[in-house]
Each structure stands twice: as C-alpha cells, then as structure tokens.
Amino acid sequence: MYSPFSTIEKDLRRQISGDVWFDLEKRTEYSTATCMYRVMPVGVVAPRTPDDVQKVVRLARDNEIPIIARGGATGLVGQAIGFGIILDFTKYMNRVVKISPDTLSMTAEAGCILNDVVTALQPLGMMYPIDPQSAKHCSLGGTIATNAAGSHGLRYGSTKNQIKSMTVILSNGDLCIINPKETENVLTAEASKRFAKAKEILSGNRETIERQKPKVEKYSSGYNIFEPLNGDNFDATRLVCGSEGTLAIVTEATMNILASPRVVLTVAAYFDSYEKTAEATQIAREYSPSAIELLDKSYTEVGRGLSPTSDRFISRDFQTMLLLEFEGDDAGVLRRDIQRLKERLSRTNLIIDWILLESDAERESLWMVREVVSEQLNRLPSKERKISTVEDGAVPIANLPAYMAGLKKILDKFGITFTLYGHAGMGHIHCTTLVDIQTASGRDRISGATQDVFELIMKLGGVLSAEHGDGFVRTPFLEEAFGKEIYSIFKEVKYSLDPEGILNPQKIIGKQDRLFLHDIKEV
Fold it and tell me: For the whole model, what pTM was predicted?
C-alpha cells in the first residue's frame, strides 16, 4: 500500500544503522503509552547511535515532520506519543556506559532503564537517589524529560539536582554537551547562537521571572526558566530538564551517585483523617526524614495479599498511613529522633497507631505495596479506569491540609472514586481517579473535576505537575496557571531552541483552551 511517507522510510533505511518501522502494526503499538490517548505516528525508529539520531532529526526537519523521543513509555499524560517519527531509545541506546565512584558519577544512555542503574550500583555500595515507583520500566531519558523525583525527593531533590552533564541533539541535528557551568559546554556555532538567545530571553525578563517563581519545593510544569540563571552563569541543563523533549533530545547523561546510607529506619504511622495526616506531615518535616510517603486506605486495599508481612501492616483500621523514613550513620540518633516525633504526635492526638519496622523484610514489604499498587492501578479490570489528570498537583507545604480537604470535596461532588498517595512531605499528592471516559457522563465528570482541582491548586499557590509533566493533559491550562507574561516567555524559549517547531509539538506550548479530552483510546 502506498504511503505518503514511503520516501522518508526509504531514506531512513538507507542512512541509519538502527531499526525503521512504518508498518501499521508497529505504528499502532507506538500510538499509545501509559496514558488515555492514542495518536498514530508517521513511523518509528530505534536508533543505535547518536549519529542515527542526528540523521533522523535532520531528515525530519527537512520534511517538516515532528520528532517525539520515547523511553519506557511510562508517562501518564501523553508525552511519548504524537503524530511524527517516534525515537525509541530503549532498544539499543540503553547502556550504563561508565560508573566512577571516585567522582561520584555515572554515565548512561537515554534509553537505560533506571532499575539497571540501581542494579549496577548496588554491588559498589552506591545509589542513584532518584527513585520513582516506575523505576523498573522508566528510562533515564524519560526521568530527565519530566524532572522526575520519587519517594526520597525530600532529601535528594529531583533529577535536575543530579545532572553533571548531558549530551543533547537540537532540532537542526547538531549534537552538543551541556553542563551546569556554561563555560564547560561543548557547542556548535549554531547551538551557541540558540543557547545564547535563550539566555538573552531569560536575562531580559529576570525581574518578571523572579517575581513569579513557583512557591513549591518541586515542579515539572511549563519550562524551568526560574533556575538556569545564577549571576552571569546560564545552566542549560536546568532548562532542558523537565522540558519533555520539546527543546532538545537527550541521548546520554552523566549523573550524581552517592554512597548508600549506613542506617535506614522506617516507621508506619496511622491516621483517621486526611486533615490529621497533613498536619502530622508538617510536624514530621522538622525531624529531617528522607521520605514522608502517603498511602490512604483505598490504596493499601488494592495491595492486600501481596505478602503476609505487608498484610500485617495494612489490615488495620485507618484512613491514611504515612511511611516515614530516616537515614544516617548512627542508629541510636535516628531512634531518638523517631521517639521524639512519636511523642509529639501522640501529645497532639494526631496518630492512632505507630510501628517502627524492625527488619529489612518489613520495610521492603511496605515499600513493595507502594510500588506494586501504583502499577496495579494502571490495569484495573473494571470499566472505571485510572485517569491521570489531577494525579500530580503540588502546593506549598503550609497549604497541604487545605489542598487535601479541597481535593476530596471536589471529587466527592462529581461522584468520582479516588485514592490518594504520594510524596506528602513535599506538598505533592498523587491522586488516582477512576472514571469510565468511554461514556459522555464520565468525560463530563472528569472534565469538570479536573478544571475545579486545577483552580484549587492555582488558588493555593501550587503547580499542576510536580514530576509527571504537562503532556496533552495540562498544556491547555498553562497560560492560566503561570500567567500571560510567563507563558509568553515559555514560547520565546521554545522557539529560540527549536525554531523549526518539530520537537514534540503540542506539549507545554499549545492551544490554551482547557480542552484535554481528545484522541481518547478505546479499551
């Protein structure tokens, strides 16, 4: 059958060493991901080398075809799909290239699955501190694209905090190496012009940007125009990280690694209301935990039967549980801090139960619940399925009680079943909503609830996404969320680095119309 892109397919097969697919079966496979959307791509390429990526990008540029970089396809809001050529980095460009304990760094290709990094580091007593629950499936490039964090972001920050350098390819096909220190960048002449233009845009709007910087501790919404400038230094890694493949394509990165903590102690604290949980979270932060992870009862119920050990902890009467984790060198010091926190929460009548987990097996069993249930929610057999729209909001920690209360009120108003979990310690709540969006009623309910929740987040000074990114879901709300001035700067930055407009279009920069229920896949 004739394809209007048959010439492109032939040219790609002739020019690159990687795999090229333009058949219907492969395109259908890559038309969706862990999201509610389906968009048929033009074709799919699995590059073997950065040179392959450069050739694909140049051919796409010359033919005005979009390019969508793809890792483990775990993104919940459609970043890894689109009309264009999909670049799948996970088939070949998936290696841990180098581990350097002496410099506390490791280098890996963009398609490297994050768990492969963890496995490579463990025998050396080292760790990579970014630990999303999708680590067994997500790629390093994907975590850079969304500025992922994970359960221990309270202590270690997010991906942007771990970057030592990145190899990226721009929309004209130029390969560059960017670093936190601008003077260490390795750029072509054209790349130098583009990054200089981006720097000029941020410098010229420095006062506006500073005034409107998000008040939250983590964010992955819009472009990070708020941190690249420090004095005269322009840290391009901070701008590219979290940009969802819309500014540059990452092919390799060198990241920080750390020695694994000598002592880790975990507490399961139980509460009878969301309000008390939020209040206890604010108090617990004063005791320097590495994680404060929320699991509500509806979440843990999905995890019943995973193991006899975990069942002992989740088969109790509670509305929410906090997993509080503490790291250090001295177990005695950690136990003393934990006891002080317990006494304080008991005096204020916030907790209904408190268990210090005494073994690694107990600790691992509860973290397994946190990890596995997150995956199980993606595969529920009922017509009401997980819909990711309000799953990633974050607010200033002082506003966490109001956010949790308001979130529940809105979802109850629309009759939507939900579960709350996630990184409460940073004011960041994951909210799984279960809706049948194959029906008009389901679409109306999730549309109304999403708009109301987003308005609540904005009112509380929060961001629509703290680590999952904007994709198709949140892009239509970004001008409203950040204001016209900031969104205008986002646009200028986009086209300073991607003047061709071919890198993952309609993500971050797109129509501002609140319309996100399009291209819904049938199930």
Answer: 0.96
